Amino acid sequence: MNEISGPMYYNGVYHEFYQYNPDGAFDPNDSLMNMVWGHSVSTDLINWIGLEPAIKPDIPSDICGCWTGSATILFGVQPVIIYTGLIDRKANQVQNIALPKNRSDPYLREWAKVGSNPVIQHVIPGLNSSHFRDPTTGWIGPDGLWRIAVGAEVNGIGTALLYKSEDFMSWTRIERPLYSNNALNMWECLDFFAVVPGSNNGLDMSSEIPSGAKHVLKVSINSCDMYIVGVYDLKRDEFVPDTVQDDNRLWTRIDYGTFYASKSFFDSKHGRRVIWAWSNETDSYSDDIAKGWAGIHSIPRTIWLDGDGKQLIQWPVEEIESLRINEINHQGLELKKGDLFEIKGIDTLQADVEIDFEPTSIDDAETFDPSWLFDPRKQCREADASVHGGIGPFGLVILASDNMEEHTAVHFRVYKSEQKYIILMCSDLRRSSLRPGLYTPAYGGFFEFDLENEKRISLRTLIDRSAVESFGSGGRICITARVYPVALVDDDGAHMYAFNNGSTTVRVPQLRAWSMKRAQVNVMKGGSVIDA
Ligand code: DQQ
Fold this sequence. Notes:
By secondary structure, the chain is mainly beta. It is 4% helix and 49% strand. The protein folds into 2 domains: 3-316, Tachylectin-2, Chain A (5 Propeller), CATH 2.115.10.20; 324-516, Exo-inulinase, domain 1 (Jelly Rolls). The chain binds 2,5-dideoxy-2,5-imino-D-mannitol. 2,5-dideoxy-2,5-imino-D-mannitol (DQQ) binds next to strand 5 and strand 14. InterPro entries: ConA-like_dom_sf, Fructan_Metab_Enzymes, Glyco_hydro_32, Glyco_hydro_32_C, Glyco_hydro_32_N, Glyco_hydro_beta-prop_sf.
């Protein structure tokens, strides 16, 4: 499977639709043809029931595949899916609509395509018609009209095309796009949502957006999910970024690891916005075929905008805490240069770890070089966990074998830049496995930090065997990684440590960790649960 398509919460049930390849884990020639919309449901975002696919290619306007799209709930009652259909083997793309056949079925198992499909054709001057896809969730303007954006490449430029509709069925393109920027070409899986700076309450795009709200445009390209914060100019129907960045290497990322094609939705049960994404395998295609599956979805995260109006914050949904067992707790630890503290007493292959680091002095921060911003991974490779620093590196070593031949390091390093401090967070997979043929980069990203006032730098890492999701500084920076240590296959346990390799001693005022229970995932066929 690949990305989430059309997540929604409707009548007490969370729906997770997703791109699913019914032909197998991987087909090197044609892997994205014939895609269907897989469908799972949950009441808590943790335990899931897998259903039959909701949408399959069977009409001329999706005959070669049902690609990504979104769900919108019209006026709180009517769910609608709008998705991209492939009309031929050349991957020419149009947009289609499907509606639930029976709204009183709590799982909304069956979906019917409307007779007027395709509702949006690929006839636009300069459009590359095989790059015209992934419509967003709809939003409503003060004029009562619905809008959606569709990702496209127009005259070689990445564009969020804007469409308007009175009834969500018949759509007119607005000539001026919602936004375009020549730093990138095709934009996949656009996401467009409103946020109130400093508030973790989500906003429903199907309702009026309060004044003072900002808007976020997320684009997916080249395995990276990037976002821009700005304002939505209602008069011009245009997204205006707060800062225009022409070099896309400097765009802020939703996550600096293997986390792609994310999609958010408004969760009316908790009044929050939830985002999640596809995390692809980083082993080999033959591994995928042997496993019989490929691709997972991240843990859903609540997402909101920091009080500074610049930075999105993400945090695993609180429901994930229901899987915690066997808490261990350490307080007042001190890590001097070279110290390694083993975290024992939990299942290190399936764990949730929360740790705070407090440097005892801020004097030894090394000087920041702004050119590093262009390539944080290079900095993570060169200044890795074994390279002594001033403040840091400190962090966690996880999934480590007895002799450390295999391990993954998640760590921070603090730099001083003129008036502020900049932190580098890395998730270094280069020694994560002894197996050859894996993709094992050192992921990394930078973020600003008010070290003088905030003092504590927090790290939360969720380990679910091959999936390692790390949240730095309360969710200001996130890195998802996939690792395949031999120790994991052997299931003979792996070690976990907190470490410091900087000359400044680091206090650990609080370290809490838990083993995580398995979530329950059932599969439903023909009306009954067949596999628990
Ligand atoms: N995957 C879908 C496309 C989308 C791409 C096809 C992103 O709609 O652009 O499965 O991963």
